[in-house]
Write a structure and sequence with these properties.
By secondary structure, this protein is mostly helical. Helix content is 56%, strand content 7%. Strands 1-2 form a two-stranded antiparallel sheet. The chain binds zinc ion (ZN). The site of zinc ion has 8 residues, from loops.
């Protein structure tokens, strides 16, 4: 059976298109621009009819998984910023002096800007989403 070659996703660090290469340790995907590279994979796989190794597919899939992780991490960061801003806003109601001692006016203006699109009833939902996303990410890290 011939494995089909998956399309490579852009580098998660610089956005350049990476290349599949074969180093001593095995096939891997690397970025010629910023030199980021994916893991090397097994070299013992037989060469298929079209001179393409199953290890090549593993290397490309490993690279593409990390590129997809970047989007998940960006979403997680956005949720955490939103949840943090909501928490600071709520803390300001009960501990004004502590909040103003801890954060500059610029930082508090950023907090206001990042939460002004939110409705009051959205607050619990935001906490729950950020919490669920953090738990999911923690579970994902625990698998490896
Ligand atoms: Zn790169």
């Amino acid at each position: 059976m011939t494995a089909s070659k998956p399309e490579l996703l852009p580098c998660p660090f610089c956005g350049s298109l990476p290349d599949l290469e074969h180093v001593v340790a095995g096939p891997r995907v690397s970025c010629g621009t910023c030199l980021a590279c994916g893991p090397t994979t097994d070299t013992s796989e037989a060469i298929t009819d079209d001179d393409f190794r199953a290890g090549d597919v593993q290397a490309i899939n490993a690279w593409n998984d990390r590129a997809a992780d970047k989007a998940r991490i960006a979403e997680l960061q956005r949720l955490l910023i939103e949840a943090t801003a909501v928490a600071i806003t709520m803390l300001y109601d009960s501990h004004k002096a502590d909040v103003t001692a801890e954060f500059s006016i610029d930082e508090l203006e950023q907090v206001v800007a990042s939460t002004e699109h939110l409705q009051a009833e959205a607050v619990e939902r935001i906490y729950r989403r950020a919490w669920d996303a953090a738990l999911a990410q923690q579970g994902k890290e625990g698998e490896t």
